[in-house]
Amino acid sequence: MTAPLDDLPLDGLLRDHALRVLLCVGTGGVGKTTLSAAVAARAAMLGRRVVVVTIDPARRLAQAMGLDGLAHEPTPVPLPDAAGTLQAMMLDVRHAFDQALTAQVSAAEADRIRANPFYTALAETFSGTQEYVAMEKIGELHRRAATTGEWDLIVVDTPPSASALDFLDGPNRLESLAHNPLLRVVLGLPRGPFGLLDAGAALATRALDAILGGRLFGDLRTFLRVFERAVLSFESHATQTRALLASDAAGFLVVAAPHPAPVAEARALIDRLREDRLPLRGVLINQVTATTRIEAERLAAAESSADEAQRVVLRHHRLLLARAEDERRALAGLGRVGVPIGLIEKRSAGVNDLASLLGLFGGLDQQPAPRADL
User: Fold this and answer.
1) Residue 156's beta-bridge partner residues?
2) What is the pLDDT of residue 372?
3) Concatenated DSSP letters for 234-279?
4) How far is CA 130 from the centre of its chain?
5) pLDDT value at 264 more than 70
């Protein structure tokens, strides 16, 4: 069965107070960060207390929200006439990783591990770190909301990656690193109830010590010993967050562009979300060319009586119509996936202030909720 495009009831979704976490997922270059901010702002207009977590946003996006920049802690966004409130923050991977570690181990151990060169390499370059931090931040904000009531909706701009759902697997990579049996044996870490090493493992340990040098090898052993204990707490939080994201309190919005490659990626994301039984709430198609077949008929009629100057303008409109037709063909298959789809029209002026940010959902809007005392 084919579903109509532009049938996503976004306002109804954002008004549902059972929804506590909304994640925007998609590959890079489709406007996911901007739409995450716009969804958050729209939810605040509708009466929700919202915090939006963005990943390395462009400076103009922060300025569009009336801020000089975004920090690693939630910052209030001035949103006149909103029935709710909006806060925004940028995910600072190194700061958040340090913060998560400090919360799990003693201050002395945290200082030791932060000064360790292997920790620096892990925090800044390991492929699972950003994804782990995103998962940890979702859990942290959700726990904080339950305690303080600062917000009742968390909107997350998920990390860009080759696979847009890699962040769900980030904690697994850190856990696999900490529990890697080869590393544990070679580095002389206990691997059994009596912490015994066999002769081959002891020989390998001495060989690695000789290759790396005593100090560097000692740094690596110290790092892994302390990090392993921290990972046990990380695992507990990650398990709780995964359960949250699979519950009715969460939702995923797939963000795509109206072109064959992004649409194919969106369909793959939809399949993955369904396979993992995660709550898919809809698809947003960004930067859609706003033309209709009626306009095409009017254009053809106008060309027959136009002068040369008018024909130049009409040729531009014909190019737009051709582009819109290509987009319609690219999107045709999405109507068969059985998911509500919202179309976000392309705006030549871009997003440069709150009005234009909120205006992205002009075709999806309903009337804002009346302002109330909070």
Assistant:
1) 23, 53
2) 39
3) HHHHHHHHHHHHTSTTEEEEEEE-SSHHHHHHHHHHHHHHHHTT--
4) 11
5) yes
